[in-house]
């Protein structure tokens, strides 16, 4: 549970910054193409997005694992759920990182 | 072993909000909001990847989400997010021994010291704050 709580607290702080970026700019304006590209090109913000991506992926898929293990137990089932969640977590981080890296480096 | 398996209620038992009071409702809402937020997060990662298709691709995908239905879904996501955060902090504090009362001899009617008014207020606060945040979100999204 330490990982679950740690990722939760860190994510709350960083997601608050992420949402404030949308609200301080004006919700609709902040979602315009040029504004979003500018966000991604700003390295500290892109780094923060990457950290949020990792934190929420770990927290989300660990939470899903806990729910699934609460429903049913068994050696094979538990291994399948744990490895399945780790694979899904890595896949989501890889897919999200691809977007961040490609936009940040101008590969769009 | 067979009898033990027969007594398991499975998903039906997990989603049953009756019995055990508001704590059970909080348990159910925590799981539902967690699953909802994970689904939204995966969708958000996919949605933002449309920026790789250039301005046209981004605007096309954004148009799909900037509808009344999209705003309503986002308002529900805001509510889930606030409830999950506030109730999560309550659970963490309880896990750390904060607000769970002092250990005492279990006497009839065996009311658990941990299920006290402080934690009940925490749960109701999470629900009220989630509703306020949802209203604020709707005001921001429909106000523009």
Describe the secondary structure blueprint for this structure.
The complex is a heterodimer of chains A (108) and B (144).
Chain A: H1 2-25, H2 27-30, H3 33-41, H4 43-71, H5 75-104
Chain B: H1 2-6, H2 10-14, H3 22-48, H4 54-65, H5 68-95, H6 117-142
Number of strands of chain A: 0
Order of helices and strands of chain A: HHHHH
> What average pLDDT do the residues of chain B reach?
88
What is the percentage of strand-forming residues of chain B? under 5%
- The portion of residues forming beta strands of chain A comes to under 5%
Radius of gyration of chain A: 17 Å
- The run of helices and strands of chain B is HHHHHH
Number of helices of chain A: 5
Rg of chain B (C-alpha, Å): 20 Å
Briefly note the structural class of the backbone of chain B. Answer: mainly alpha
Overall SS class of chain A? mainly alpha
C-alpha geometry of chain A: elongated
The number of strands of chain B is 0
In the CATH hierarchy, the third-tier topology of chain B is known as 3 helical TM bundles of succinate and fumarate reductases
CATH superfamily of chain B: Fumarate reductase/succinate dehydrogenase, transmembrane subunit
Major sheet attributes of chain B: none
Structural domain tally of chain B: 1
Gap between N and C termini of chain B, in Å? 60 Å
Number of separate domains of chain A: 1
The CATH class of chain B is identified as Mainly Alpha
Low-confidence stretches of chain A: none
Explain what this protein looks like in three dimensions.
The complex is a heterodimer of chains A (108) and B (144). With 108 residues, chain A is mostly helical. Chain A has one domain (2-104): 3 helical TM bundles of succinate and fumarate reductases, CATH 1.20.1300. In chain A, 89% of the residues lie in helices and 0% in strands. Chain A contains five helices and no strands. Chain A has helices at 2-25, 27-30, 33-41, 43-71, 75-104. In chain A, helix 1 packs across helix 4 (43-71) and helix 4 packs antiparallel against helix 5 (75-104). The N and C termini of chain B lie far apart (60 Å). With 144 residues, chain B is mainly alpha-helical. In chain B, helix 5 (68-95) packs antiparallel against helix 6. Chain B has helices spanning 2-6, 10-14, 22-48, 54-65, 68-95, 117-142. The longest helix of chain B is centred in the middle third of the chain and has 28 residues, at 68-95. Chain B has a single domain (21-99, 112-142), classed as Up-down Bundle (3 helical TM bundles of succinate and fumarate reductases), CATH 1.20.1300. The chains are: A mainly alpha (108), B mainly alpha (144).
